[in-house]
Amino acid sequence: xxxxxxDHDARRRDVSAAVWRVLSAQGFGGLTMRAVASEMGxxxxxxxxxxxxxxxxxxxxxxxxxERREARPRLSxxxxxxxxxxxxxxxxPLTPEAAVGNRIWVGSxxxxxxxxxxxxxxxxxYARARERIRRHVQVAQRLGEIPESDADDVAASINSxxxxxxxxxxxxxxxxxxxxxxxxxxxxxxxxxxxSPGTG
Length: 200
Description:
By secondary structure, this protein is mainly α. The chain has helices at residues 5-26, 33-40, 44-50, 54-71, 80-91, 96-113, 116-142, 151-171, 178-193.
């Protein structure tokens, strides 16, 4: 008897939830058809019904990351440097949930580097992140909070700083508690604005 689309969608959500639990516990290195099936208490045949290959499973996991990032509640960001700071604090692993998401994301790098299609997708994601940062940089420049310079270069520099800080936090969380992450971020942003007119 054919299944209703609602049943199919519900089962796919169950599989997605299991994928996320495996990622949270084991990272991308432990993401396999068997691990997802075990997490569900199901057979690998059920998982392969939804994902025909490991690459499709990884692609779905990355899509889940995107969905969860976009679904996070966000306050209306102010303009200028304050808005830029809000965007960046939303990225940092300041909470246990954010740390899990970042750990999964960094764990995806190895999988992406080994597959051109996944690498291209990561390239698009990082381009979007830089563009979001660049827009805030341009507003801050118009407000005189950041000196006029190539906004693309500034955005790339900011993104590089944040990614580097995230990696350090993931490998040594005790050395980088939330208050230190914010202090380092504020120091970096202060450096961006140090040579703006009117700054001391």
